[in-house]
Design goal:
- The chain is mainly α.
- The protein contains 5 helices and no strands.
- It has a single domain, classed as Tetratricopeptide repeat domain (Serine Threonine Protein Phosphatase 5, Tetratricopeptide repeat, Alpha Horseshoe), CATH 1.25.40.10.
- Helices cover 81% and strands 0% of the residues.
- Helix 1 packs antiparallel against helix 2, helix 3 runs parallel beside helix 5 and helix 4 packs antiparallel against helix 5.
Length: 94
């Protein structure tokens, strides 16, 4: 199976809200190709949807290392930062 077919399978699972299956596939893709921007973006979206903001930001940052200026990665980092900024004050002022 070609890498693009595997990535399409992961995207299809993501679209069906099968996040665990999609994550498993995308992790294998990244293991074999650690510069696959599409795989990192998909994994970031999976983490984001799972409310794992730190992991999502790490993957978006990995995308920017490979492809500086990637619009989705930049906006993803900003969205995660705003969510974290929204939640963090509660930790200090219960």
């Amino acid at each position: 199976m070609k890498m693009s077919d595997t990535l399409n399978e992961a995207k299809a699972l993501f679209d069906q809200h099968e996040l665990a299956g999609s994550l498993e596939i995308v992790n294998r893709i990244i293991e074999n190709d650690n510069e696959n921007v599409d795989a990192f973006l998909l994994r970031a979206r999976i983490h984001y949807k799972s409310q794992q903001w730190g992991k999502a930001m790490n993957d978006y940052c990995a995308v920017l290392e490979i492809e500086p200026g990637n619009a989705e990665a930049i906006s993803g980092i900003e969205m995660a930062k705003s969510i974290l900024g929204y939640f963090t004050p509660d930790m200090f002022n219960p």
